[in-house]
Write a structure and sequence with these properties.
The chain has 340 residues and is of the alpha/beta class. The protein contains twelve helices and twelve strands. The protein has helices spanning 19-25, 43-55, 85-94, 96-116, 145-161, 192-199, 201-208, 233-243, 266-276, 287-296, 305-308, 328-338, and strands spanning 8-10, 30-35, 62-65, 121-122, 167-171, 187-188, 213-216, 220-221, 249-254, 280-282, 319-321, 324-326. Helix 4 packs parallel to helix 5 (145-161).
Amino acid sequence: MKEQSGFLMVDTAGAALTDEDRRRLCHPLVGGVILFTRNFKSRAQLAALTEEIHALRAPPLLVAVDQEGGRVQRFAAGFTHLPPAAGYGRHFDRAQQDGLDLAACGGFVMAAELKTAGVDLCFAPVADLAGEGEVIGDRAFHARPAAVAALAGAFMSGMSAAGMPAVAKHFPGHGGVSGDSHTECPVDLRGCDEVLQNDLAPYRALIGAGLGGVMAAHVKFAHIDESLPTYSRFWLRDVLRGRLGFQGAVFSDDLVMAGAAAGGAPGERAQRAWDAGCDMVLACNDFDFVTAILEAAATVPEANPRLGALFGHPPAATVATSRGRCTVAEAAAILDRAFA
């Protein structure tokens, strides 16, 4: 297992590293890089970029992306077009096993294609329950907790077959609000029993199956805890670590988002997230914000084995479905036929 010491994940300027990118990525507090569409031109270019990022440091930086499918797919040309999670849910409603097989194929294809391009991690699957809001919308597999648990579990099994740990989001749940945490802090007014029984059901199942990571939501559960989950020892330590027994890595969502503003200045937001129980915090699309965190931090973290485990393991050549094992090409063809 590789060890990982930095606890800040940042972004870079474009399709190739600049000198400023390299200086920032070599800071000892930085432990990962998240890529966006602006970082991608082709699979060959992406592979060269990730190779350079990995070569900058020892232990290497984690390289991550949001490539869950549907409207959240950063890399397009040369990659399989992935359906939104709700597409698997619709197949599940018609024939449960078909939906589960498709979800496993989707996770396998997504992760295998990313791994071959040098990307270590994808922030998926979405474990939120489908609600009325469009922010999550078709990014959720289903509205029923048991269905989300089953479909997200199948997607995770496909990722695991490709050698990539899953990082479920947005803990403890983003499906109960309509607000967009990129532009505001959504408030969920539901009680504790409802959230624990319904929204946490997928996490219980995924954790039981070996979930590698969790991303915390920028949603305020006003009747449960005054702090956002990102800044909450109750949510991250008492509930996630304690009640659910989670042993993997905890990520914040992007601290630059308006939904995280209650944490204060950039350095305060990062410190509050680390103190609450986040292993790695994200700061994206604002280099001044990143600089402020780096200047405010007082100590360099010790190596974190939970983050080191996210580099994954050697991939299998195939993924298991109810109809037999499928290669990446075969799984991609199955997806194409199902969602044509």
